[in-house]
Amino acid sequence: MAKMYLFTVFERLWHWFQVIVVTVLLLTGFSIHASINLMPFADAVRIHNIAGLAWAVGTPFFLFWLVITGQWKHYIPTTKKFFAVARYYAWDIFWSTDHPFVKTETEKHNPIQRLAYLSLFLFIAPVQIISGVIYWQWHNLGLGFLGLRNLAFVHILFAFAILGFVLVHVYMITTGKTLLSYIRGMIHGFVE
User: Fold this and answer.
1) Among residues 123, 137, 154, which one has the least CA distance to residue 49?
2) Domain range spanning residue 34?
3) What is the DSSP letter of 70?
4) Which residues, including other chains, have CB under 8 Å from residue 140's CB and lie 6 or more apart?
5) pTM given for the model
6) Which of 63, 97, 148, 171 is 20 to 30 A from 127, comparing alpha carbons?
7) What ranges in the chain are assigned the alpha helix state H?
8) Dihedral-angle region of residue 147 (phi above 0 means left; psi in -120 to 50 means alpha; beta otherwise)
9) d(CA 158, CA 120)
10) For the chain, what is the domain count?
11) 9: domain CATH number?
12) CA dist., res. 67 & res. 79, Å (int)
């Protein structure tokens, strides 16, 4: 099977940057929340704020890159093969059936990936970043009178949404032709 170059250096760097930043944010965030005990509270807060700021600054650059390069087209939802892909993941994958979606240079992501990534880019990540910045600077923004309970709830709720995305994403990368074939594509940019 021929290899096709699908993921640019920038896309791969952005992907691995997000892997690191989101992992740090989840671990430090759950440490702050006392769900896990990885480090002292003050250290977790400091590291969480730095990682959150890096994500908040980096995300608009990635979105800008999507627009100027035309790569945004790969994230537009489609119904083409949606139900075939859904059936594949719900049933056919367990019977060694071929994936109904074939990646091409004009279609990098299947319909379910498109929906998941678009939801992450346009809804989950922005809400998480904005709520995090407000949470971090709430007193400096003059919002001290509001309290933090509702904002904290939203921030934690969306942290669990991101954790869910990460868990499904990690599982899905193991479903290629070989255990590591999808990971290799995100390292060197080529897919089979």
Assistant:
1) 137
2) 4-191
3) T
4) none
5) 0.88
6) 171
7) 9-32, 41-69, 82-90, 111-119, 125-137, 149-172, 181-188
8) left
9) 10
10) 1
11) 1.20.950.20
12) 22
CB atoms within 10 A of CB 4: 14
Alpha-carbon gap, residue 15 to 123, rounded angstroms: 18
State pLDDT tens for residues 99-134.
999 888 889 999 999 999 999 989 999 999 999 999
**One-letter amino acid for residue 135 of the chain:** Y
Cα 21 from Cα 15, distance rounded (Å):
10
For the record, the structure tokens of 75 come out as 């994230």
List the structure tokens of 35.
């769900």
Q: What is the pLDDT of residues 175-188, one digit of tens each?
A: 888 888 889 889 99
Q: How many CB atoms lie within 10 A of CB 45?
A: 16
CB atoms < 10 A from the CB of 14, how many? 18
Q: What span, in angstroms and rounded, lies between the C-alpha atoms of 94 and 109?
A: 21
End-to-end CA distance of the chain: give it in Å, rounded.
Answer: 6
Dihedral sign computed on CA atoms, order 66, 72, 74, 75: positive
